[in-house]
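Lab intake sheet, docking and co-folding queue.

SAMPLE TYPE: protein with bound small molecule
LIGAND NAME: zinc ion
LIGAND FORMAT: SMILES
REQUESTED OUTPUT: full 3D complex as structure tokens
PRIORITY: normal
SUBMITTED BY: R.K., bench team

The fields below were copied directly from the construct record.
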Amino acid sequence: MTYYCPFCHNPVDPSQRNVWQKESGWTQKRKAGGTNALALRKAEQEWAHPGCVTLAKDGLLGQVRLG
Ligand SMILES: [Zn+2]
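RESULT FIELD (auto-filled):
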């Protein structure tokens, strides 16, 4: 089974170091912002490259070409 990075669409090897695995869960809605712990976390079979996640978090994806 080959997994593809949702950011760059290249194959990801889940056994590679520092790869990111997607996780879903539940968070409680509050008036004020702030971080809540994720409840009932569930690991998804979705993987992404460390560099891609870093760029996506910084909002740089699409502007920076990955090697
Ligand atoms: Zn990627």
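REVIEWER NOTE: The two ends are 24 Å apart (CA to CA).
SIGN-OFF: pending second check by T.M.
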